[in-house]
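name: query_chain
kind: protein
chains: 1
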Amino acid sequence: MSHPTPLLVDELIDPEAMSDDELLGALEEGFARRHEADSRIVRLATAIIQRSRSSLGAGGLASKTGYASPATLLADIGRISLAEAHRICRVAEGTTARRSLIGEHLPAEYPVVAEAVRGARIPVDSASAIIAAIAQASPRADAIHLEAAERALVQFAVENPVDAVRKLAACWRDALDVDGIEPREDELVAARTLHRTILANGLKRYRLDLDPVSSAFMDAAIDAQVGVVIRAPRFDSPEDDENVPDPRALTQIAADAVVDLARHGIACVTTDVPLPSATIVVRMTLESLIGGRGVAQIDGIEQPISATTARRMAADARLIPVVLGGSGEVLDLGVSRRLFSTAQRVALAERDGGCAWGNCARPPSHTEAHHIEWWSRGGETNLANGTSL
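structure:
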């Protein structure tokens, strides 16, 4: 299918000539227009799906234009990924009024999401994440709870980025469908894969898909190595060759950390891997720890795990189970052979969740404990005067 000639965008203003406020305003306006365009694309995709329904057979729009599905049609015309096309189709199907088997009109399956998408108040990716999470929970959840989750997630999505929406949607899903956590967990474990590809430039690419628990171990090992490099003293002096800044990028340091683990496993005759201090924090309620039902969260891992899995992990001496009460206070930091140098540093890492400066997203293993009021000026060494940077 031939593609139409793109329209020229008018009102182009040189961003270099804008003030900071003008630049931010123009960017906000640009995204608002993008969301409006996405809303229109969802409506068009709805029509494509309806005209390509299976009951039409070869006469369906997608089939007669040479496409296997509406999603492949969207991907080709829009020059987008197939994954993005599937997300658009998911939102289109979930936000469109339906007909029952006897022909009566039914509202959209996700009416709150539908209203937000039509009003261009949330992006398609956020809508897709909300629909996917609620759909997974719906077979075993009450309708009133599903409706409350949909409203809460849409309200959150209006003010927050897609990544945050996806994380919160997963939490809602698991809260609504406690019995479904372990089956989904088993599916993720079964889906773990490693693919190796030789690139044209001679590099070898490893694509590793891991379940939440496996990825927690991998992240802890890599972040510990990266953290050592980040926190190392750096003196740019020709007289001190050992402490010059490390020239490697963070991605290179992380890659080298994986290779070091493999090299040690192959060549070393000892069983202990020489890792820096590496800690995995598993967060769960006291009720879940005692009863074995419910959900737990591994710090730094987006996908929740079952309480049963968390209880198994807590038996490992290198894990610190962080048990939270109903109000979120720390009740027990557990025991580990590879703790930070003091319990205070562990508590700071738990409280701050990583770097506490602005929007920095570095994990706890990349940070150091610092005094808010300098110790040299009388600042006390306690949690109230501590921060992770």
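note: The CA atoms of residues 229 and 246 lie 7 Å apart.
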